[in-house]
Each structure stands twice: as structure tokens, then as C-alpha cells.
Amino acid sequence: RADSMAALANLAVARHAPLIFVDFDPRADSQAVREALRVYPILVVLVLDRLDRSTLSFTTANGDLIPAFDLYADEAGARHEITRHTATADAMPAALPGAKTVLITSVGDAGDARPDLVAVVGYLAGRLARGAPELAR
User: Fold this and answer.
1) Of 12, 60, 66, 98, which is the most buried if we count CB atoms within 10 A?
2) Sign of the C-alpha dihedral, residues 76, 77, 80, 81?
3) CA 110 to CA 132: how far, in whole Å?
């Protein structure tokens, strides 16, 4: 995940995208991370996990984000599963409670979904820059 985050950070800086990256260790003090981020308006949290398969998969309890992320992947040319259901809030990681959260993993054959992830997040950054209504504050 760290190399994916580094690539995403470089992309964000080059495009002046309003993104924050946190490589969170679940053994760390999660309250301290939440407190440090409290001053920033967080629109959506992307939790990255297992990107060692061929196809991206999106999971979210925020049903309004399902068509958005599937569209972002389509527009970015990223391999992804169509998201067919909304997850329960209990099934989602609680990175920042109350923030819209999307869990991004990979499924399928062994592979490398990192380039597809970077493409999707790059597309999301472009949507943010254009005031995307689906990511409204």
C-alpha cells in the first residue's frame, strides 16, 4: 500500500488536489489520528486493502457513492467489479466515524491492481477539482 500511496500523493501534488494520505497502523492511537484530522473537511475516506489481485472491488455503506465509484473506474479504464449492494455500516472500517467511507480491495486472479487504483483516485481528484455534486460538502 505504501508505494500506491506515494504514487497517489505525487499525482495529488501535481494536480493540486485536496487529498490527505494517512498510512494508518491499526495498532496506533486511532483517536490521535482522528484528532489531527479534525481540522480538515473530510468528504470521503478511502481505505486501501489487498491490492494484489487483478480487479478492483469497492465496498461502502454510502449507497450514493456506489454508482460514482463504478463510473470513476469505468471512465479511468480501471478493471473493477460492478458494485451490486450497499454494505452495512458494521461491515465497514471505522477509519473516521461519520465520514463517507469506501473500502477498495482487489479480487480475482493474482495480479496488481495498484495502477487501476491510481487511475480511479486520479479521476476522483479531477471530479473534486470540478466540484463534483456526488462529493458535495
Assistant:
1) 60
2) positive
3) 34
Strands 53-60, 101-110: pairing is antiparallel
CB–CB of 69/102 below 8 Å? Answer: yes
Residue 95 CA to its chain's centroid (Å): 12
Residue with cell 473534486: 128
C-alpha grid cell, residue 9:
500523493
| Alpha helices (H) along 1-137 | 2-14, 30-37, 65-76, 114-129
Q: Beta-carbon neighbour count of residue 72 at 10 Å? A: 23
- Cα angle: 127, vertex 50, 99; to 5 degrees: 45
Please write the tens of the pLDDT for every residue from 16-45: 677 777 777 777 777 787 888 888 888 888
Predicted model pTM: 0.84
